[in-house]
Amino acid sequence: MDRMQEDTWGTISLKNAVKKTSWRWAAVCLLVMSGIPTLSPAALCQDYRVGTWKTPQTIQPFFYEHYLSSTQHVEVYSFTNPADQKLALLAGSLDMCGTTLSLAIHAASRGEPVVVVSSLCNKCSALVVKKDGPITSVAELRGRRIGYVPGTMHEILLRETLSQAGINPDTEARLTRVDFFDMGIALAGGGIDAFLSGEPFPSLASREGYGIILAYPYFEDTIGTINAGMLVTQQAIRNNPGMVHDLVKAHALATEYLATHKQQWLEQASTFGTSIEVLEMAVPNMELAWYMDETFVARARALGERMQKLGLIDNQPDYDRLFDLSFVRTVQEDIRLDKTAGQ
Length: 343
Fold this sequence. Notes:
2 domains; five-stranded mixed beta sheet; 15 helices
């Protein structure tokens, strides 16, 4: 395992580390192709393609290579939305990608051969209103203009939040389509009265002084705090389970490292364009994740039921096929054994 040592991580930039690892991988492959007659280069030199967003809560793939072997190389491709990632995955251009759970459920309900093999992040959403404005509770959003992005996890959370406050989202609130990057400007300028989106936008609104966080849309009795996961195809699991295992293990180890090394996490996340000061504010509302269990799947079922009720899907997917818990269970045991061996 090529894990970056803790005492040197702070002095080596991720860019340089990846560059060094990539050169090492290339050198190893050249040696293999020229000097080992008994094993094929393809069997020893593995090139993986992973998609994700450039956000603090979906950062783990950028660290995978530190937890893969010397003959494994990962190329990380950044996307602006999960739908494009899924399309690239199904087209064979990616081996694994991030996904919101709502998108995974939507895809599976249409018969698309996708499988969630690990969690990616939990929480990360907030409902924001104008600072010093008239709205001090969710109930006071009745009749107000609320910014959201249709078809996203945030739409479901927004509708759930309004419904639990006794507000019919379709008839008693003015849901207004606004791009994530424009929500702050729309709120500050009076174009909307509130918005629900993912971090770091809620914390940015609070930091810059034009917004305050009104509520966190998490419901322990139904959806909980689930948010996103890592997606592969059914074909990948059939044809290359070893690859899926290795990527899930790299994801788990990267998640564990970043969760316990906040400064390294935020320093790298700040290179995506958000200041560390804003990220520090957002940290309590962001949870990096990898493990999932039956409770996780039960909450995903509750999410799917809510999506069908809202008309976002026509039928429920086969959740036993959509979620494969075997990889995280195996990786959990691998990590336990590795820790035991290292004692």
